[in-house]
Amino acid sequence: MSDTEIEPQEQTQQPGHEQDMRPSPESRMQRYRSAQRLANKVALVSGGDSGIGRAVAIGFAKEGADVVITYLNEHDDAQETIALIEAEGVRTLSVPGDIGNSDFARQVALRVVQEFGRIDILVNNAAEQHLVEKLEDLSDEQLERTFRTNIFGQFFLTRAVLPHMPDGGVIVNSTSVTAYQGSPALVDYASTKGAIVAFTRSMAKQLLPRGIRVNAVAPGPVWTPLIPASYSAEKTAQHGDNAPMGRPGQPDEIAPCYIFLASADASYMTGQVMHPNGGTIVNG
Hints:
Strand order of the largest sheet: 3-2-1-4-5-6-7
Distance between the termini: 26 Å
CATH superfamily: NAD(P)-binding Rossmann-like Domain
Largest sheet: 7 strands, parallel
Number of helices: 8
Radius of gyration: 17 Å
Number of strands: 7
Number of domains: 1
Helix content: 25-40%
CATH architecture: 3-Layer(aba) Sandwich
């Protein structure tokens, strides 16, 4: 995968725009070779317009699934993702809105069912993060906003989808290496990611009678729009330098974990977390 040097850059608004990043993330799954592991499935991917979500959505499409993506307001990125999904010859749909709003989650689930009849695979991926060096400076509003997007959104969307998911369905949640290591300047973000691990394990047990598998992926540093939208230009240019591999991952390197967990290849896995993080050992 690419080890091209990241230019100093920053964006002023989250979740960020992939088309403005330099170099462009590798998120189009161009090297991926499919085996129709998800043929005739219907998948819903939150935060599917860019970054890891885009790579997952395209990977699912390459594997034969119809794919619906949600996103906040990055219409340009979403349009490109939809075009890339359509190029795989499957049906697709994009739905903009705030995943931290329970009404939106219900509307998305109903829209998918109206268009596709059911939801076989759910990927809870949408997230935000904001650098705050001292807890005393973390406002009530930001604390609630981070939790509402990152963990409430997973509760809301999962709750809305489950009545429309056939027995034997699959849920894959995005957590983070910060859930295991902590992060001094991302305390609220890391805390939500720890909650996602507990959510994953608890739902895996709750849904065992229905044969619905629930797993998670905990990426390390990855080159996505969230990075320049979170850090200073100088900090962005150093992203991933501290990983054992000495570089950030690319979304294309993370997406195969989601594809594996969504497929029958992972039929004996539930309540587990995969760790594509560039070599960091977390024992989790």
